[in-house]
Amino acid sequence: MKSIQVNLGNRSYPIHVQSGLMQQSASILSDYNHGQKWVIISQFNLMELFGFDLLNLLKEADFDADFVTLPVGESAKNITEFSRVVGQMVELNCDRSATIIALGGGVVGDVAGFVASSFMRGIEYYQIPTTLLAMVDSSIGGKTGINIVEGKNLVGAIYQPQGVLIDPDILDSLPREEVIAGLGEVIKYGAIWDRNFLNEIASWVENLDTFPYEDAITKSCEIKAEVVSKDEREGDLRRILNFGHTIGHALESHLGYGRIRHGEAVALGMKCAGFISQKLGLLSKEEQSTLVETINRLPLPELRHINGNHLMPFIKTDKKSEKGGLNFVVLDGLGNATTTTDVTEDLIQESLKVLN
Ligand SMILES: NC(=O)c1ccc[n+]([C@@H]2O[C@H](COP(=O)([O-])OP(=O)(O)OC[C@H]3O[C@@H](n4cnc5c(N)ncnc54)[C@H](O)[C@@H]3O)[C@@H](O)[C@H]2O)c1
Ligand SMILES: [Zn+2]
Question: From CA 118, how far away is CA 123, in angstroms rounded?
């Protein structure tokens, strides 16, 4: 089993990655079982796929375990569902010693983590991510939260889990489009942090049927863990994780949530950001094409013509736009990201042509 440490002093925790890990999860967690109530927060489809097996393993190992489900979809990240889960936990006699297991993708992880951060002023939780995006991104780093009508993730907390358990075999049941979306974030890690990793991904994506998920997840987690360990609260360094996200978020908002997956939008946003980096003289044409060709290997949704004038307002309201200036993440060479305020509106508009 590979274990990666997120180093945050007394809030440090391990990320375990291994095929078949679900079978060992009860024995790994039993070190932390002292008779308290354990609650799996998940979705019913995921309970049927692997949650009930996990519950049985926990019960066989003498855990006092139960489960609560959320609906499927982004709409589960709301205050009503949050209150309902908290209410159910009270009904299950959870107290301050209760421990949550977030079993699911980013939606489950974000809500369950936020419940953990606030239930009786904070209880312990573990992440067992089940989507590729959650395995390489949302389960690590402690960002938790829900949406309000005014915007996504506007209510939340940075609250670290006690551990993250990743079983890449769980991806077997994940719809292919969800896997592809997760690969967008995997490519991001190579682009911003490790040129050799990007080159490896470039060859791996030539045949997606043989893609070595365990290796790619492990490397991605190592990179995310290193960035978060150095900058937990997104001072500066953690911002580079937003590479491709300024235009990506704008595409999500412009097309409407549910029309394009987050990771797909990020993949397209990275093509634009690569173009911008090249125009600023930070990336060579050759490097830009390595990035673009890697992304182009992913079967991404075809976009109808994107009108820059429609996209621009969303780019300007992106939360990375601070004090009037847009803080844009660019590549200063492959495998090395930096932020700049030198990106003009015209350049962003010009970059959108790589999408059409
Ligand atoms: N906290 C963070 O740092 C962070 C980072 C990135 C994204 N996010 C959040 O993550 C959310 C998106 O997460 P997501 O992309 O994982 O989507 P998701 O959680 O909605 O999961 C996608 C779908 O796949 C299903 N599913 C999950 N695992 C499965 C499996 N193994 N087999 C079959 N079906 C499975 C789910 O039931 C769901 O219908 C967004 O709300 C986003 O804001 C958070
Ligand atoms: Zn992302």
Answer: 8
